[in-house]
DNA sequence: TCAACATTTCAAGAAGTGTAGAAATAATAT
DNA sequence: ATATTATTTCTACACTTCTTGAAATGTTGA
C-alpha cells in the first residue's frame, strides 16, 4: 500500500457509518453481506446514504462488491486492511526499530 | 484505543500534510522536532496552516507538544500509533481469526 | 525596555463531505 | 407485460474542513 492509497483508506475509515460497515463486513467473513443487511446492521437501511458510504469504501479499496440476483453483496477487502496495518507499522518503525518496541511484537487474534 | 479515538485518529491521518507530519516525527524519534523544523520538512514553513494541522494531530492524541525556550517541540505519540494498529488488527480478525491469516503474523521493522 | 524570533489565534472565503428524498436501473416473480 | 423488491443515481442544501493573511502571545537577548 502506497501513501495515496493509505490516505484514501484513512479518509474512508474516519466516518462512523463507514467504520461500522467495515467492522460488520469483517465479522461477516468472505461470503460478505447484501447491502440491505449491512444497512440494517449499521442503522442506515434502504437509504441513499448507505450507497454513498459503500461507494466511498469501494473507491478506497476497502470493500468489494458483486451482484447476486437482486442483491448486491459486499465483502471486506482483507488484503487492503492488512496493507493498511503494514503501512502504519512501517511508518511507526521508520528508521528507529528500537522505538516501537512492543509494536513490532506479533499481533494475535483474540 | 476505543472507537471514538480511532475515528479521530483516522480523520487526523487522512490528510496529506498531517500524514507527512506524523512520518517526519516518527523518523525524528523521541526527542521530537520543533514546529519550524517540521514546517520545513513538510513544506508548510512558518504558516498558520502548520499550527492548524499540528493542533488537529495533538487533539487526536497522535502527537504531544512541549515548550522548550522559544520553540515548541512536537513528538510522535508512539503508544497511540500502536493502539491504532491494534484496533485495526482486532477489527480485521473479529470472530474469524482464520480469515486474516498473514495479518496475524508478526510485523517486523525493516 | 525594546527588538527579534517562534508559534499560535483569529476571521473570512473556497472547497469538500454528509444527508435526505425523488427518480432511475436491474432482477425476479406473477 | 406488469408489479415487486433491491439498490443506486441525481439534486439540493447544511455542515465541516482547509487555506490565507493579519494580529496576538510568549520567549530570549541587547
TrEMBL record, chains A, B:
Work out whether the entry's keyword set contains Translocase: no
UniProt keywords (A-Z) are: DNA-binding, Transcription, Transcription regulation
Q: Which PROSITE patterns match?
A: HTH_ARSR_2
Could you tell me which Pfam families the record lists for this protein? HTH_20 (PF12840)
What one GO molecular function would you report for this record? DNA-binding transcription factor activity
Every HTH arsR-type domain range: 1-96
Query: What SUPFAM superfamilies does this protein map onto?
Result: Winged helix' DNA-binding domain
Name the chain's protein.
DNA-binding transcriptional ArsR family regulator
Species the sequence originates in: Amaricoccus macauensis
Amino acid at each position: 500500500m502506497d501513501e495515496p492509497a493509505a490516505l484514501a483508506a484513512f479518509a474512508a475509515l474516519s466516518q462512523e457509518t463507514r467504520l461500522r460497515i467495515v467492522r460488520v463486513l469483517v465479522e461477516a467473513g468472505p461470503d460478505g453481506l447484501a447491502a440491505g443487511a449491512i444497512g440494517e446492521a449499521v442503522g442506515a437501511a434502504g437509504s441513499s446514504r448507505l450507497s454513498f458510504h459503500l461507494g466511498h469504501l469501494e473507491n478506497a479499496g476497502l470493500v468489494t462488491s458483486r451482484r447476486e440476483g437482486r442483491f448486491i453483496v459486499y465483502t471486506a477487502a482483507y488484503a487492503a486492511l492488512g496493507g493498511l496495518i503494514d503501512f502504519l507499522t512501517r511508518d511507526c518503525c521508520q528508521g528507529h526499530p528500537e522505538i516501537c518496541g512492543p509494536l513490532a511484537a506479533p499481533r494475535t487474534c483474540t
